[in-house]
Amino acid sequence: MVTKKELVSYSTDASRIKGIAERVVFPKDVREVEDIIKTPATDIVPRGAGSGLVGGVVPNNSVVVDMTKMNKVLEFNSGKRVVKVEAGITIRELNEKLSSRGYEFPIDVYNQGISTIGGMIATNSTGDRSMKYGTMKDWVDGVEYIDGKGEFIKATKADIGEVCGMEGITGIIVSAKLRVIPLVKRSISVYQSDNIDEVLSVARRLKAEKEVIKLKLFSKYTSKLLGLPEKYNLIIEFDSEKRGKVTGAEYEKVLNLEKRAYYGLASEGYYNMEDPKFFFDKIREFLNFLEASDIPYIGNLGSGIIHPFFRDDEKSKRERVVDFIRTSQGKPGKFGIGIVRKYFVDPFDMTIIQRVKLRHDPYARMNRGKLIGEMSSGKRYSMTPGVKEKIMEIKPSPLEEKSARELVKNTVEISTPKSNGFENSDSPEEKMHAFIKEVSKENITETKKEEFYKPEVKETVKTDPIEERPRPKSSVDYNLINKIMNNKYNPSDKQGLSKEPPASIDKKTENRFSDNSNKPRTSESDRDAINKIMTNRFGKGFSNNNSNKEGRSND
Question: Which of 61, 185, 315, 469 is close enough to 241 for a disulfide, judged by CB 3.0 to 4.6 Å?
Answer without folding.
Answer: 185
